[in-house]
Amino acid sequence: MLYDVLVVGSGISGLFAALYAKKKGARVVILTKGNPMRSNSAVASGGINAVINLDAYDSYLKHADDTISGADGIFHRQNIIKMCQEAPDIIHELRDMGVGFDTDEDETIAQRPFGGGSSARTCYIADRTGAAIVMSLLQACRKAGIDILSNHKLLNIIKYKNRLSGISVLRRSDSHVIALACKSLVLAGGGYAGIYRGHTTNAQESSGDVIAAAFRAGLRLSNMEFVQFHPTTLVNNGALISEAARGEGAHIIDENGVRFADELQTRDKLSREILQHIKKGHKAFLDFRHLGREMIESKLPSTQKKALSGAGIDILNEPLEIAPAAHYTIGGIWVRSDTSTAIEGIFACGECAVSGVHGANRLGGNSLLEGAYFGKIAGKEAAKSAYRKEYLPVDYAEVEKDMNLVEFVLKGESRFNINAIRKSLGTMLFENAGVFRDVSSLGNAISYTAYLRGKLYGLACVNKEKENNVELSSILEFRNALLIAEALANTAYKREESRGVHFRDDFPRQDNKHFKAASYIRKMGKEFMDIRFESMEEIDIWHTIKKYLLQQKG
User: Which of 220, 246, 267, 504 is flagged as catalytic?
Assistant: First the structure.
């Protein structure tokens, strides 16, 4: 079947995009490479921000001010204001879909404080907010008759005369490469924090596949150096301990029981403070004991279970050891305010896109909001774009290239262990392009990615079976992860200052003269990358005008 709108990704942004494209009358399909409930949205536990309690002297403008303050000098002001203004309507829309937000005694939606916020404005469902929202959205998509192709992995974007004609896809059940034609494409496939294998809260599939495909297709990436580390993850495996824990009053202590950090400061500052304390020879713990059984079991049940299963700790009676890990990536595909990209017919939203609402540092509770807000816009715009045009020819020479790559990986000689090499990349990135960076460490990161690129031809499957070959997917993901790691390390090297989540020991202060701007990176041939720093709002205005003039021409 032919589809008007193809959505890649089953998180909150992709599901909203699919629903709103369908509402506009488009034939829609959602493509997801795994279980839809394994998206980053589904494991976003803490909540979603919105100003719904005006009696608390809060307003959407204060929400916008907090978001701008957290963005640390790089932001798209109008996008932030519009997102915060629409946030209450998004909450009520989700509630109407069946999302059962926790309520206070008067039946109003309950809200908790989150780091960087001047008011308690984070709506939640205990500590499983993302999963509850994704489940309701999935049910709404199925009810609307939207097709969902699970176990299908995006390989590349196919163009005809620099316009979208379709995508190539790996059907994981039998390792066949297929082509899907579409009029509009919505990229909503999440971020790339999973490339920090062994030091991340993300699932191992989070390798930046969608962003890498966009980069290869000629789309510009932005702010790839800004990787947010979550300050509280299980020290032994990186499992996320939601900010809900600190929002509900859990303390951060060391092995001596001393509280050494402000629990509700922004995530970048708290991660640095915890890691510095650890480097001095201490350990860091989350202490829940003073909260009491009733509160923990009603507000933090998932945290309680995760601590017991992941670390063998009963948080009612003992503190839980934690450490920072890569959690959310602010960088990704550059988009205009309407989520369109530089290639006609391609839109991007959610964590894989850069809309300018997070700037250099995201506030907790704003990611689900961003996904919902820009997902709705992407769905509407993709349907509108599809209505205006016909299907374009699919260049099967491009599809054949992907077929040949899959054949090589399946049948070639295996010289390296893919799990070991992915973990080595993750450890290297954490040590050299992690919470703390400098010219030497970033130089090491650039050199190591070049070294790993030389090993790609030795990465092939030990298991040659085509049915559900997990090794094949892992090798293809690593190729994408390596491209993303190169972009990250190079932009971090070029940004000679500290701002938001990007902290350089050799440039510990902000340089507003040279770097109060977003970074933009374009692929130049097979090996080179062009990196520039430009105003986020000015470039959005210029490209919007350029898009309008091109539409008037033809």
Answer: 267
